[in-house]
Write a structure and sequence with these properties.
heterodimer; A: 118 residues; mainly beta; 7-stranded mixed sheet; 1 helix; 11 strands; 5% helix; globular; B: mainly beta; 5-stranded antiparallel sheet
């Protein structure tokens, strides 16, 4: 199956700093990438959908100025958590699809990034 | 509103069979998915149903009834490594994925 790589897998930062998480599709061109957030014992919450070369579409309640998403190429999308606070501590997961993958329904997920803000 | 319901937690014995149910109420339907997620890891794809009936894939099978808004995931010959959360997700008329909260499956020897 398709491979999606996410980095870093774990990051600890101080309150007020910014953290960047990368999501790469390694063996296919990802026209669309999805960013999710997951709190302990809860389901995935879609934060935003990003299409290559255009601005991300954010879900209701997600601050676009706090969670900056850039999808500059067909293989890379980044999520930057700006001025992170302890309540931003969570598990962030990206997934990617191209047209063919999306039509069959299967999403390929990155390994996830666990962010801890002190 | 849109809603996906699945049990919070289930326990089963190694070697046995377990059925995890999922009921949904969504605006439109364009497929139902089951994903497996081990603790601290990203979900991995298990199955996809878009038509009514049973889809079998090795030890795992998934069933769908669109008229009842109901699906189940059947796991046979349970192994300890099957201990994980199982997520049900439905794609609505806008092709948005609506996720259930997941069912934590505990396998006992």
């Amino acid at each position: 199956g398709a491979v999606v790589s996410q980095h870093p897998s774990r990051v600890i930062c101080k309150s007020g700093t910014s953290v960047k998480i990368e999501c790469r599709s390694l063996d296919f061109q990802a026209t669309t990438m999805f960013w999710y957030r997951q709190f302990p014992k809860q389901s995935l919450m879609l934060m935003a959908t990003s299409n290559e070369g255009s601005k991300a579409t954010y879900e209701q309640g997600v601050e676009k100025d706090k969670f900056l998403i850039n999808h500059a190429s067909l293989t890379l999308s980044t999520l930057t958590v700006t001025s992170a606070h302890p309540e931003d501590s969570s598990f962030y997961i990206c997934s990617a699809s191209d047209r063919v993958v999306y039509s069959t329904g299967e999403l390929f997920f990155g390994e996830g990034s666990r962010l801890t803000v002190l | 509103g849109q809603n996906i319901d699945q049990p919070t937690e289930m326990t089963a014995t190694e070697g046995a069979i377990v059925q995890i149910n999922c009921t949904y109420q969504t605006s439109g339907f364009n497929g139902l998915f089951w994903y497996q997620q081990h603790a601290g890891e990203a979900p991995t794809f298990l199955s996809y149903n878009v038509l009514d009936g049973l889809e079998e894939k090795g030890r795992f099978s998934s069933f769908l009834s669109r008229s009842k808004g109901y699906s189940y995931l059947l796991l046979k010959e349970l192994q300890m490594k099957d201990s994980a959360s199982y997520l049900c997700a439905v794609r609505d008329s806008n092709y948005q994925l609506i996720w259930g909260a997941g069912t934590k499956l505990i396998i006992k020897p």
